[in-house]
Design goal:
Layout (H helix, E strand, L loop, with lengths): L2 H5 L13 H24 L9 H8 L4 H40 L4 H10 L14
């Protein structure tokens, strides 16, 4: 049940800083300016080609904030980078371990092993130093 029906009074509306005609004219100018800007925007939009990923469009259409999408995307990329960095470091350690073991097992191939490892960006451990398995 509404307040009007229960009290029998009509609701009151208050306006702050309304100065009659000058306020209406200012509001009219603002609305006209908004309409003109929207018309300009709709005319220039076809000439501007910006590729927006469909995921972001769907995110916005679902009334979600694209800044949150960006933050989640950056966090995902950081996690993946950390994971790949860990894998890369593990493979480098494996390469060094294999090179070290090959140098011990086949000492006459030491120079070839060093060249192969260095050609792939790795470093050969100094012979005589044992690496943890």
């Amino acid at each position: 049940m509404s307040t009007e029906a229960s009290t029998g009074e009509t609701p009151e509306f208050q306006s702050y800083d309304h100065r009659g005609s000058p306020t209406q004219e200012a509001m009219k100018r603002e609305i006209q300016s908004l309409i003109q800007n929207l018309v300009k925007l709709s005319r220039t939009a076809p000439a501007i080609h910006v590729l927006i990923p469909p995921e972001i469009v769907m995110y916005v259409e679902g009334s979600r904030n694209p800044d949150i999408y960006n933050r989640e995307f950056v966090e995902t990329v950081q996690r993946m980078n950390q994971m790949l960095k860990g894998r890369s470091e593990a493979l480098q350690a494996l390469q060094a371990q294999i090179a070290h073991q090959l140098q011990i097992a086949i000492p006459e191939m030491k120079d070839d092993i060093e060249r192969a490892v260095e050609a792939t960006g790795g470093k050969v451990p100094i012979t005589g130093i044992t690496l943890d398995p």
